[in-house]
Specification:
Glycosyltransferase_2; 16% strand; transferase; 36% helix; 8 helices; Glyco_trans_2-like; Nucleotide-diphossugar_trans; alpha/beta; single chain
Length: 227
């Protein structure tokens, strides 16, 4: 099976070359899809130099958000399996084999990489972020009747045929609760796999903030109770 790796990119000039090198080093048949969401720090000008037969690059003509970049990337994916990869260095591409294994084994249609159910390393960072994440995951679980431990994780893996059944509506970080609500309504098998996590602080370029938490709360209610 071929793996499509979708990487939304926004102002990642300091990490994009490194993460792309890490992704390319994974020994799996793959295509890499980079979607620049109108970066203003020089990333946009650098990306064309990375293009090759296995790396596709697309550009938004204005800043729309992570969800919009993912929607673009998903529409361009040709692999049998699609995984989301952030352009920073928080998530390690060497985790791909264990993330896709439940799908290869025929056990799963979707796999979430959990930062909280893991025997692997995890950087210690913000308590209130962790608490907010657990609250949003709990509320999402209550309405989807899933028992996920990390709804907000970047590492989400899908059979392409599952993604083809879903229309992404959220432009920003509301994508996470939206996609979780929508897959919960399908007759599919969902697994979790523990992953390592090297989180970054705000001085290192972390972008998500409290407003995104409020938006996630709105999306949990919208896509579970109002649809």
């Amino acid at each position: 099976m071929k793996l499509s790796i979708v990487i939304p990119v926004y102002n990642e000039i300091s990490t994009i070359a490194t993460i792309l090198g890490c992704v390319r080093s994974v020994d799996i048949e793959k295509e890499i899809i980079l979607v620049d969401d109108f970066s203003s720090d020089g990333t946009r000008q650098l990306l064309p130099s990375f293009a090759d037969d296995s790396t596709k690059i697309f550009f938004h003509d204005r800043n729309l958000g992570k969800g919009a970049a993912l929607k673009t990337g998903f529409s361009k994916a040709t692999g049998d399996i699609v995984i989301i990869q952030d352009a920073d260095l928080e998530y390690d591409p060497q985790q791909y084999p264990k993330l896709i294994q439940p799908i290869l084994d025929g056990k799963a249609d979707v796999v979430y990489g959990s930062r909280f159910v893991t025997g692997d390393y995890r950087r210690v960072l913000y308590f209130w972020h962790m608490l907010g994440n657990k609250f949003l995951t709990l509320l999402s679980n209550m309405l989807t009747n899933l028992n996920l431990t990390d709804m907000e994780t970047c590492y989400k893996v899908f059979k392409k045929e599952v993604l083809d059944k879903i229309t992404i509506e959220e432009y920003r970080f509301g994508f996470e609760p939206e996609i979780t609500a929508k897959i919960s309504k399908l007759d599919i098998k969902i697994y979790e796999v523990g992953i390592s996590y090297s989180g970054r602080g705000y001085k290192e370029g972390k972008k998500i903030g409290w407003k995104d938490g409020v938006s996630a709360l709105r999306c949990i209610i919208k896509y579970n109770l109002l649809r």
